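P.,

For your records, the input lines for the assembly:
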Amino acid sequence: MDRRFTPAPMWLCLPLMITSEAISSRDQRRSFAELCTAPMRYVGARTRFWFQYASQVCTLISYALWRLTFGYRHMRPVTRAVLIKQVLFTAVDALPFTGLIAVLLGASVIAEAELHMSGNPDMVGKLLVIVVIRELGPLVAALILLVRSGTAMVVEMGNMSVGKEIEGLEFAGIDPFEYLVVPRIFGMSVSLVGVALYFLAFSVGSGVVISAILAQSTAHPIELVDMMTRQLGMTELYAFTAKTFIPGLMMAGIVCHEGLNAGPQVTDVPRCATRGTVRAVVGLFVWNAAVSILMYI
Amino acid sequence: MLQPQSTALLSYQDVSIEMGGTVLFAPLSFEVHQAELVVLSAPAGGGKSSALRASIGAVQLASGRVMCLGHNLAKLRPKELLSLRTQIGYVPATGGLLSNLSLYDNLTLLLRYPGDLSRDEIDRRAEQACEDLGLEHLRGRSTSDADQQDLHLVAIARAWLTRPPLLILDDPDLQLDDESTRELWARLTALRQRHDVAMLVGTSRPEMALKHGGQHLSLCSAEDP
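Structure tokens returned:
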């Protein structure tokens, strides 16, 4: 392949040429550097730390996505096995617990709606869509996965890190990122989409059942379902995707990052578990709020 | 000091390693050839593990050069380094086994990883490696329940599974009593003699290893004259 050097266009080099002409002396160079870094002096160390942390997690997630899509034509069977195990543990094993929470949430939302909005069946349907489908469903499903699997993941990775098992993989010629991190990140995000759908089905289902039991004054359950489907549109689909797939990547990215960077002592594992869980919860709520505000705009 | 030869599987040329501003040992030069046993000894904290890690490019050298299977490790990219490591059997002091896998799954992980071997072939090779090292009944046994000797042997068997020409063992007799250490060395010697595999062993107790005909290298402190 002919790989010739292509010079950058002249107009692109012009500012650089002017700058380098203008700052020929050492003092001038120093003051130019100070000018460039001036905004950083107004930013506190804490802000810089969080910015750095977010960029590290984003890099980890982007690298995992790249490895999943363009990096390898096929996923190795060993990695696929880890991914299947991850999905089984994260999604399938969590179904009974998730179902119970979903039923209770759907029932309580519909009971409240029946109590305060009887006589306004349109509002009840709208409330179910806004509260359960757009907001609480994805959020609660994400919290369930974080509490159940995210904590397990961070402790497992932390222990592996302390026990030098990750180092052992690397020394044996196995890429720890491909074997441990990629299936966990992808498994968590895929699981979250599935579990959130399951959660919505159960909470809406329980809402409809409760409404049928209580519906003396408001809409018939079939009417309620009809009202809800009329409220659903592409916005809900975008909101659902943004509130499930991306938080799944983010939560797994944060817990993997914390687990891989656990200190050398066994006592560092609980610390990194707490840190990872708290940061993932904060990240989840920040992202959720940002998506909701964007939807409003 | 061993005389350099061109056919060496592993060669260290004036290698020194620095950690936290301290040079760990005086420049080290040696070579390991086919079927040879080289024993590297130093007291605890003398830089033995770091010196061995240099053989797989896992530490930054302060000076010198390491050639492994004809490759200059400093010039390899991370991906090439990982690929080279699959051709050498390196066993860290901790064994490096995954606690969430069974002993058998740990043993066969290196063969399953590339994904190009059938299950029967993997089982056959695993059986052979177990036979070579005298390991029995691994299937279904959890890694967390295994004793120290079995963990060491499985880690060595895992490294030996791909039949590398060179085995690098970091403290293989760590936490083993005298009887177990004797047994381990008998097995390693049999393996070396039967398959002409070269071995570089780092240990703080070189006496037992040297009984089996190894060449001894002692790491000197950088401050020693």
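Two observations worth noting. Chain B is about 35% helix and 20% strand. Chain B touches chain A at residues 53, 56, 58, 82-87, 90, 92, 94-100, 109-110, 112-115, 158-159 (CB under 8 Å).

Regards
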